[in-house]
Amino acid sequence: MGLSRTIFAFVLLHLAGASVSLIYLKGSNYFSLGRQYGARFSAELVWINEKLQAYYVDEKGLSFHSLCQQAAALYRRYCSEDYQQFIEGMAAGSGLSLKETIVINGMETLAAEAWGCSFVYVPPTKSLSHEGLVARYYDYPPPFDQLSQHLSVTVIDDGKSVPVALVGIVGEFMCLTCVSKENIFISINNGSPAGGSHVNKSANATVSRLIEVAQNSYNLDEAISYFPKTFKSDYSLIINLADEQAARSVEATSRWGTKLFVPSPEEPFVSTNLMLNKTWRLHTPSEEESWQSGQRRDNLLELLDSDELYSVGDLKDILDIKLETGGARWEYTIYQVIYDFATETLHIRSTKHERVWQTFDLHKVFNSRQNDPSRTVERLVLSISFTFCLLMLLALVLIAGGVLCRRHVPGKAKSARP
Fold this sequence. Notes:
Blueprint: H1 3-16, E1 20-26, H2 30-40, H3 42-59, H4 64-76, H5 81-94, H6 98-105, E2 118-122, E3 133-139, H7 144-147, E4 151-157, E5 164-169, E6 177-180, E7 185-190, H8 192-195, H9 206-216, H10 220-224, E8 237-242, E9 247-252, E10 258-261, E11 269-271, H11 293-303, H12 312-319, E12 333-340, E13 345-349, E14 358-361, H13 362-367, H14 376-407
Parallel strand pairs: 1-4
Antiparallel strand pairs: 2-3, 2-11, 3-12, 4-5, 5-6, 6-7, 7-8, 8-9, 9-10, 12-13, 13-14
């Protein structure tokens, strides 16, 4: 897609009110997949690059060189050359430099402090469909409130592993929130309040490793097996994994290894930024240090403390409740996700920019190529363009008809003189 056509699509998407785009990338060459991605989202990537530099360089006084160094450290820790090649392809497709693209991909490492995030699992015993439900709050400080108006669901199908849908801000090639064709949901929360802010530079980037986990796991147990007690993350993270029957929480630190937390299979489970495994001997963070983790968790557990069975609609209502009124949505919540294991539907809302939830049928996406998801945006653009042209044509016909009518209105006939 050329730059002018991409910008045209970008403008029309905003006129249509869409903030989450779906792209299906199929092929074994990750550079080619990245180039397709970069071409599709070139306008958004250019805009995000400008916003990042305006915030960190112009407003915060950091040099672009320092941003590159910070983000490149994450890029070098990626566990697969394929994933690095995707980022290189993104640069080629978008017209940005590789340095700029690496900064965009690693943009969340630029923040002085990462914030919040909450994970909710409703077990089959509490679900109206009798299969699990997941809800997810993604919290981050400025300028990510602006950037979150451009979210994407990026499906990677390399033909040799399990297809995976990655959810995040456009330009992020990592598993912050992802769902596999095998119906395994994975997401991360910041674990630094207890696990510490140390960065283990000798470890692979966990956000890249989670793509690998999703691509190579056929059930929840296989996914969990990737995280033995000796596993050390580059950042301290709480990795929440779930399928239609159960959820697990992998509490991975950058210094002290990993512990598994197994929630009750009968009760709703909530994970914020606190380590829940009681065998840890770590610092116990205050509410201020953990971004009101205790309050957010308590609020959500109370909202889910009912004998009634929960649906996707119920979770949408719960996710809409603000922290100060008994919920967990607060000023740093930039987007929210709900996943229904029964229907394999993904629901996403950019909380700073949209009131409406957008729904993606991942069962259809993963299993049907008849309606090619990679052409979703293009079909939308063509549909809007066609409708617009029809309306313009109708307006011209009406105007022309009105002019003709005025020209041929019969007036009072003049009498002929003898």
